[in-house]
From TrEMBL:
<dbReference type="Pfam" id="PF01409">
    <property type="entry name" value="tRNA-synt_2d"/>
</dbReference>
<dbReference type="Pfam" id="PF18552">
    <property type="entry name" value="PheRS_DBD1"/>
</dbReference>
<dbReference type="InterPro" id="IPR002319">
    <property type="entry name" value="Phenylalanyl-tRNA_Synthase"/>
</dbReference>
<keyword id="KW-0648">Protein biosynthesis</keyword>
<dbReference type="Pfam" id="PF18553">
    <property type="entry name" value="PheRS_DBD3"/>
</dbReference>
<keyword id="KW-0479">Metal-binding</keyword>
<protein>
    <recommendedName>
        <fullName>phenylalanine--tRNA ligase</fullName>
        <ecNumber>6.1.1.20</ecNumber>
    </recommendedName>
</protein>
<dbReference type="GO" id="GO:0000049">
    <property type="term" value="F:tRNA binding"/>
</dbReference>
<keyword id="KW-0460">Magnesium</keyword>
<dbReference type="InterPro" id="IPR006195">
    <property type="entry name" value="aa-tRNA-synth_II"/>
</dbReference>
<keyword id="KW-0547">Nucleotide-binding</keyword>
<feature type="domain" description="Aminoacyl-transfer RNA synthetases class-II family profile">
    <location>
        <begin position="220"/>
        <end position="482"/>
    </location>
</feature>
<dbReference type="InterPro" id="IPR040725">
    <property type="entry name" value="PheRS_DBD3"/>
</dbReference>
<dbReference type="InterPro" id="IPR045864">
    <property type="entry name" value="aa-tRNA-synth_II/BPL/LPL"/>
</dbReference>
<dbReference type="InterPro" id="IPR040724">
    <property type="entry name" value="PheRS_DBD1"/>
</dbReference>
<dbReference type="GO" id="GO:0005524">
    <property type="term" value="F:ATP binding"/>
</dbReference>
<dbReference type="GO" id="GO:0006432">
    <property type="term" value="P:phenylalanyl-tRNA aminoacylation"/>
</dbReference>
Length: 499
């Protein structure tokens, strides 16, 4: 083995002056010796210095003349003593031998090229060129003049030879200790860990290319919408509770207990735990009263409000449940401070699943809470928000929500379809919702909501929601999609949101 040979040799010798010579002496391929020297040098078992040597080697043409003789000699020998016509001579030798041979033989004054005949001028010639080539092949040193002549004829070329000279390094040992990578239980039990040499960590080693860590398209679009809200100075609401009580999801939002949306056809109710543990009692009392008798200038619904209904746990059907909790908390802080809130998270509805509907999806929700806000403020904020998504042509249509008055559906002009398409819902939260919370009389809340799935599907060219979301999603979809689509998103978002 090359490594044993080198380390063994250095045990009793000061150095190896020439790795080429050493390779020849021990009968191991020089390339193998070089590889081992590099490794030993890296671990400082030896110190190696480059050595470079230039030597002349034969070109293919030069090599062929060492066998067949130089072309001038081949040509000379092809000329009989009585001479030969040019045509005959040309037939006897290769065309390259004829061409080169004639030129050289004339230069050497070996032949006479007469009009009729080609004839020898001397009786015998020596093949000096062939002899010189053989001597170079065998590594002999020859005159510079001869070298120059052979180089001009491209029969030899200079080759750089690389090798090393080396001596023992600071970590020299006659045998390399194999560095251990892991400390094992056996090492500890046997106690031999004390003598082990551990391999150093290689902090600059490259890891394998990352295969995972791709973001799902919904997460990417969510990030983009999140950035828009943050740029507009909105704070994100904590949405980390999928389970909500009917109270915060419906009652606090002045949604009557007989409302069809509360029906188990639309809402998933929880079996365990089926009811909420606590609600703010005095606020519950005010909510009950506003449902039953109204107040704050309202007549209420005039029905018998039941606490058991409000206690029922469900999977939140909209993120407006989070908005109601946040506004209640805000109302408890004195003095009142204006707020801009947003959220983007999952909601659940007990709907028939088809190409565009799932029983769960994501809502984007924004609200502004401040004194004296008007419908004009809502329209202005919606223009600002949607134009950042690439939609600047908006129209509004009166609509109904139990918790907003007025309420407006939001439409955007779809350049591709050449028509107005619905993109979201909005409104001003009713006094029946805000005043029982304890917000000051002149505080108004403007709010809007839209789905995250729709823009994402259009952006990523997905026409079946089940290919985007749920247990049948192809993981390759996630890997295939570009990491960032912002420009495309902004250019195409008008289209996306409007399909
Ligand atoms: N919560 C409404 C929905 O689920 C959206 C909305 C939010 C409407 C805020 C008005 C105000 O569609």
């Amino acid at each position: 083995m090359a490594e044993d040979a080198i380390l063994g040799f250095l045990e009793s010798n000061v150095n190896i002056s020439d790795s080429g010579q050493f390779a020849a002496d021990v009968g191991i391929d020089h390339n193998e010796i070089i590889n081992v020297i590099k490794s030993l040098h890296g671990f400082r078992l030896v110190d190696a210095q480059d050595i470079k040597r230039e030597k002349w080697v034969l070109t293919d043409e030069g090599k062929s003349y060492t066998v067949a003789g130089s072309p001038e000699v081949q040509l000379f020998l092809a000329i009989p003593l009585e001479g030969i016509s040019r045509e005959e001579l040309q037939k006897k030798v290769d065309s390259s031998v004829y061409k080169i041979g004639c030129a050289q033989a004339i230069k050497n004054k070996w032949v006479e090229m007469g009009k009729q005949l080609v004839s020898r001028k001397i009786q015998n010639v020596e093949d000096r060129v062939k002899d010189l080539l053989l001597r170079i092949r065998d590594g002999e040193v020859i005159d510079q003049e001869d070298i120059d002549a052979l180089k001009r004829r491209k029969l030899i070329a200079l080759q750089t030879w690389k090798g090393y000279s080396l001596q023992r390094g600071p970590n020299y040992a006659p045998k390399r200790k194999k560095a251990v990578t892991d400390l094992t239980r056996d090492h500890l039990q046997r106690g031999d860990w004390k003598d082990l040499e551990f391999k150093e960590y290689n902090f600059s080693a490259k890891g394998p290319p990352a295969e995972g860590g791709y973001l799902h398209p919904l997460l990417k679009v969510r990030k983009q919408v999140q950035n828009i809200f943050l740029q507009m100075g909105f704070e994100e609401m904590p949405t980390n509770n999928f389970v909500e009580s009917s109270f915060w999801n419906f009652d606090a939002l002045f949604q009557p207990q007989q409302h069809p949306a509360r029906d188990s056809h639309d809402t998933f109710f929880l079996k365990v735990p089926s009811t909420t543990r606590e609600l703010p009692e005095d606020y519950v009392e005010r909510v009950k009263r506003v449902h039953e008798y109204g107040g704050y200038g309202s007549r209420g619904y005039g029905y018998d409000w039941k606490r058991e209904e409000a206690n029922k746990n469900l999977l939140r059907t909209h993120t407006t449940a989070v908005s109601s909790r946040m506004l209640y908390l805000l109302a408890q802080q004195k003095p009142f401070t204006p707020k801009k809130y947003f959220s983007i998270d999952r909601v659940f509805r007990n709907e028939a699943v088809d190409r565009t509907h799932l029983a769960e999806f994501h809502q984007i929700e924004g609200l502004v809470c401040d004194r004296g806000l008007t419908l004009g403020d809502l329209i202005g904020v919606l223009h600002d928000f949607f134009s950042r998504l690439g939609m600047s042509k908006l129209r509004f249509k009166p609509a109904y929500n139990p918790y907003t008055e007025p309420s407006m559906e939001i439409f955007s002009y779809h350049e591709g379809f050449k028509k107005w398409v619905e993109i979201g819902n909005s409104g001003m939260f009713r006094p029946e919702m805000l005043l029982p919370m304890g917000l000051p009389d002149d505080v108004r809340v403007i709010a809007w909501g839209l789905s995250l799935e729709r823009p994402t599907m259009i952006l990523y060219g997905i026409d079946n929601i089940r290919d985007l979301f749920g247990h049948k999603v192809d993981l390759n979809l996630i890997k295939r999609n570009p990491i960032f689509l912002r420009n495309k998103f902004q250019i195409r978002s008008a289209e996306m949101l409007c399909l």
